Amino acid sequence: MRRFVQVKLLAVTGDIPANHKVAGFASHSATCFCIWCDAKLENLALLQVGAEKKKADIFRISDLSKNAKCVNQEDKILQEHGIRYSELNRLEYRHPSSHVVLGVMHNWLKGVLQHHFRYRWGFKYCPPTPSRKRKNDNSRSSRASTRRNLSAAESDSAFHYDQSPSTEDDDDNIPLEEGHLFTQGDIELFRKYALDVVLPSTIDSLPVNLGEAKAGKLKASQWYTLFAYVVPLVILDIFLDKINNIDKDSNRFKTVLNSGLLVQCTHLVSASSFKSHHTTRFGINYQKYCSTSAEIFPGLKILPNHHYALHIPQQMMRWGPLIGISEFSGERLVGYLQKINTNNNILEMHGTMMKRGCQMQRLMMKEEVDELVTVVEVPSKRNPRRINLENSIYDKLLELFQSEDSTIRHYLNLPHPLQAKILHLDAIPLVTWECSDDIRISVKPPNNCVVAKVDGKSHYGFVKEIYSVNDPRGGSKVVVLLNKITNLFPKRLGLRTSNFRHLLYLHKAIVGNIDIKEQKIVQSNTIDSLAAYRKLAPYTFGIKSDGIILTPISRTPILDIIGDS
User: Fold this and answer.
1) What is the DSSP code (8-state) at residue 12?
2) Is the peptide bond before 232 cis (omega within 30 degrees of 0)?
3) Distance of CA 433 to CAs 353, 398, 444, 447, Å?
């Protein structure tokens, strides 16, 4: 029996210069710079999507370029239409434009985010103007003085915030002049706060001297870490002091709003899954980011990367999660290929690279390779140390088990009938535990702050203890004792901080209070994610003591506030 097998080349993905060259389009500095639409470079600052390129027109112009009688005629066609001949255009089933993937690694992570951080915020040398430096120094000293006065005041409450409305005075509104947004003092404060951020071991760390030439270039994954997990825990504390009734017209609010929109767009474009309304949300948020940027940053420079990002919603709908088809795998393969010895092998270079690349990809697809590189932990020969639980912890544990099976009995409820399900007092304490393939928790930093999902609600806490206990129904079960973190700004409380709460939501951040007296036991399989966190100074955001700001380490597009406990 015969079978018809057809292999087709469809998507082209890579960095932007490579995409332009391979797919047969002009470079990003040309008049017709965009692969996906007819936008012109002279209208770049408008940040508008042009008419979509049509397949028939591209093929027609590509043939004109191929049949050009001289180089000058070919260049004229390229300059006028932004299209040149490509061998890929011989594949008539392909759409030369639509079947090119926008690589978010170079466009968003190393493009939009890097430009925002280095040139808009100014984490490149930026001498502050005297007026801005004096204004920011006064603001910081005033904030420190306010916190000292509050700490000296007598208060029985752990949470305090000023009920008086915010006013648009010199301390509440930052000046927007020519130059970068951050002064040198702001940059030093950002670095200081960033050092206080505790990042789980599963994500890339950042250099201590962030923004300095000595720190070198950040990898794409580090740009993601910076904007997804560090900026949300730092930026609000730098620009906001009074959080009740924040004036939406103030420059402080616009600055933090601009940051929040960029952070949420980063989460949306990096999400492992999304729904159709998330693509709409990205488009709206990105337009708002561009409009607020125009207000905040005088002399704003728009780059082609900012235009390409306008096509991200369409790309998400066409290809699904863009992070799954980004350039990371290709860059990793390039790293392997760069290790090949090329001495006296120049003539066979292309064949050698292709052969070695295909060999490595076939090898990495085999299941045996995963088993080979998996680190197997050798179990200890010593018997695990068992302890007796404290009564208060035992009572919480019994309540947890009885919520699943009401017939489970307290060990002191004598006499026990035959075949009784008895929860015993002993347990094995653990230092770390792997809750899932990508979540390993511990009782010590950096993997000690977690988000648990119990009955559809999110619970935040620090891991105090991890226990392996005997399940009265058979086998064993691992449970986690948490010191609870109370979210101080949930919507249900109705505090006069709606603008502040909205900024937290955009930054995917939770501001709370650590309550070491309030403990909760959860099963290890309910741990939904780890969290990056930063402990706050007294009276930050009106929290008297033990304040904390955290953000979940996850690839979800937005913060889940519906199930927030």
Assistant:
1) B
2) no
3) 42, 21, 12, 10
Kindly report each contact of residues 387-390 with a partner whose C-beta sits within 8 Å and lies 24 or more positions away, as own/partner: 387/426, 387/427, 387/428, 387/429, 388/425, 388/426, 388/427, 389/425, 389/426, 389/427, 389/467
pLDDT of residue 348: 64
Q: Residue written as tokens 């690589």?
A: 103
Long-range contacts for 119-125 (Cβ within 8 Å, ≥24 apart)?
119/180, 119/301, 120/180, 120/181, 120/293, 120/296, 120/297, 120/300, 121/180, 121/181, 121/182, 122/179, 122/180, 122/181, 122/182, 122/187, 123/182, 123/187, 123/190, 123/210, 123/211, 124/180, 124/211
Q: Where in the chain is the domain with CATH 2.30.30.490?
A: 387-552
Separation CA 69–CA 464 (nearest Å): 76
Q: Which amino acid is at 237?
A: D
Q: Is 261 exposed, middle or buried (0-12, 13-18, 19+ CB in 10 A)?
A: buried
CA atoms within 13 A on the CB side of 224: 20
Which of 121, 106, 109 minimizes the C-alpha distance to 223? 109
For β-strands 426-430 and 476-487, DSSP reports them as unpaired
Distance CA 543, CA 161 (A): 7
pLDDT tens-digit readout, 407-429:
999 999 999 999 999 999 999 99
Contact 477, 404 (CB under 8 A): no
The interaxial angle of helices 251-269 and 276-296, nearest 10 deg, is: 150
Q: Are 23 and 35 in contact (CB under 8 A)?
A: yes
**Exposure b/e, 352-372, CB count within 10 A at least 16 = b:** bbeeebeeeeeeeeeeeeeee
In Å, what is the CA distance from 165 to each residue of 18, 241, 290?
54, 12, 29
Give tens-digit pLDDT for 132-155.
Answer: 444 444 544 445 444 544 444 434
Question: What DSSP element (H or E) covers 476?
Answer: strand 476-487
Amino acid identity for residue 400 in this structure: L
Q: What is the pTM of this model?
A: 0.86
Could you tell me which of 485, 464, 477, 473 has the C-alpha nearest to residue 392? 464
Cis bond upstream, residue 321 (ω within 30): no
Q: Block means of pLDDT (10 residues each) for the chain, length 565 residues?
A: 80 89 93 96 95 96 94 94 94 93 94 94 61 45 46 45 44 56 88 96 91 84 97 95 85 94 97 95 98 90 96 96 83 71 65 72 77 65 84 96 95 92 96 94 97 93 97 95 93 74 95 93 96 96 94 93 59
How far is CA 492 from each of CA 140, 220, 259, 487, 489, rounded to the nearest angstrom? Answer: 32, 38, 25, 11, 8
Domain 387-552 has CATH 2.120.10.30: no
* Token duo for residue 215: 């720190």
Report phi then psi at 47, rounded to 5.
50, 60
C-alpha angle 440-558-560 in degrees, rounded to nearest 5:
70
* Tokens linked to 501: 């709460």
